[in-house]
Design a protein that fits this description.
This protein is an alpha+beta fold and 384 residues long. The protein has 2 domains: 302 residues, 2-Layer Sandwich (BirA Bifunctional Protein, domain 2), CATH 3.30.930; 57 residues, no CATH class. It contains 13 helices and 16 strands. The strands form 3 sheets. The protein has a 9-stranded mixed sheet with strand order 1-5-6-12-11-10-7-9-8, with helices on both faces. A 4-stranded mixed sheet has the order 14-13-15-16, with helices on one face. A 3-stranded antiparallel sheet has the order 2-4-3. It is elongated.
Length: 384
């Protein structure tokens, strides 16, 4: 059984690989048209660099190994976002706004969901150097545009803000252990457990924490939250930011979920999760993570998003498949060789049969080159 792959790892066979590659090109072209520049960080980095500013969840997802050259601990990246932050802060060193994008494999110690791969193909975009809510809106629109580009419509983009829970936890004086417990219960929307965990939290913060799982829905939730939550400055600022996003993007399927706190230890502002029909989990995740470059010398404002192209490829509609052209072996026939070369220059897939080859096992050939009346012409291949 030496040929079996480890669990949650799989080869991408030609049809799947072609879809992933087509999506990669379309999405990266979409990013490029909006000024986002491609970067290609290495697969391995020293662990202290790779996990700078990362939450515990990322540390647990990262494979570790020892560098045979330096003796230092290295990690196989589980997320490209921290690497992009390092490039912005340490290598590019721009003073103004920097727009970066990327696409490559990452490796996880455990799958994110029961159906996910441990080797996602992560594609995403990051915007550095702008602290205003307009940057968050720009990233959300960039994400929505990417899904429009690949014809996979989003039916919901959930918005949250980690500043709301952070303000409540700070005002309530929650110790770190209690904060982690309440955070987990909120993410699970475990209201009975939340009531029990908040029993000793002083009022009005106890009631506010217990209300967060019910604060989801449309734009009206923002006004409900303003009326039902304590008038803390952090909460007011967070709700103002969410209100601005709704007002500026009425064309997007925005919704609110104030208990969705994924990435709480990493994000520090607006966070969002995108959903599409036929897929139970979020298909794309993003949000603000200011200060991620601090360890590299510059604490820059930052916001971005990413998604797994393997998962997207399973859901996106398959484009029209262009059949290949089957050609006889040219050998020393310069006329035939030139004709095959011209077809390839025009974008055609031409499979040149080798001597003795009986049938093409590769791309589906729906046409063939035939020599008719002293000319090479393309004919349709008739089904038997």
């Amino acid at each position: 059984m030496n040929w079996l792959l480890p669990e949650y790892l799989a080869d991408a066979l030609p049809a799947e690989a072609a879809r992933i590659e087509s999506l990669r090109r379309n999405v990266l072209d979409h990013f490029r048209s909006r000024g986002f520049e491609l970067v290609m960080p290495p697969m391995l980095e020293y662990l202290d660099s790779l996990l700078t500013g990362a939450g515990q969840d990322l540390k647990l997802r990262t494979f570790k190994l020892v560098d045979q050259l330096s003796g230092r601990t290295m990690g196989v990246r589980a997320d490209i976002t921290p690497q992009a932050a390092r490039i912005d802060a340490h290598l590019l060193n721009h003073q103004g706004v920097t727009r970066l994008c990327y696409c490559d494999s990452v490796l996880h110690t455990l799958p994110a969901t029961i159906s996910a791969s441990r080797e996602p193909v992560q594609i995403g975009a990051e915007l550095y150097g702008y602290a205003g809510i307009e940057a968050d809106l720009d990233i959300i629109r960039l994400m929505a545009g990417a899904f429009d580009k690949i014809k996979l419509p989003l039916n919901r983009i959930d918005l949250g803000h980690v500043g709301i829970f952070r303000a409540l936890a700070e005002a309530a004086g929650l110790p770190q252990e209690a904060e982690e417990s309440v955070l987990s219960l909120l993410q699970a929307k475990d209201v009975p457990g939340l009531i029990e965990a908040c029993a000793d939290v002083p009022s009005p913060y106890r009631e506010a924490l217990q209300r967060l799982p019910q604060l989801y829905g449309g734009a009206e939730v923002i006004d409900r939250a303003a009326a039902e939550l304590p008038p803390l400055p952090g909460i007011a600022a967070a709700l103002d930011g969410l209100r601005h996003l709704f007002a500026a993007a009425p064309d997007l399927p925005l919704s609110i979920d104030l208990s969705d706190l994924r990435g709480y230890h990493y994000h520090n502002g607006v966070a969002f999760a995108a959903y599409c029909a036929g897929y139970p989990a979020a298909i794309a995740l993003g949000g603000r993570y200011d200060g991620a470059g601090k360890a590299f010398g510059r604490a820059r404002p930052a916001t971005g998003f990413s998604m797994d192209l393997r998962e997207v490829a399973r859901l996106a509609p398959a484009g029209k498949q262009t059949g290949a052209v089957l050609a006889p072996y040219a050998g020393a026939d310069k006329v035939l060789a030139a004709h095959i070369a011209a077809l390839r220059e025009q974008g055609e897939i031409v499979v040149e049969m080798l001597p003795g080859e009986i049938a093409c096992e590769g791309p589906v050939c729906d046409r063939k080159l035939a020599f008719v009346g002293q000319h090479w012409i393309i004919e349709a291949i008739q089904e038997d």
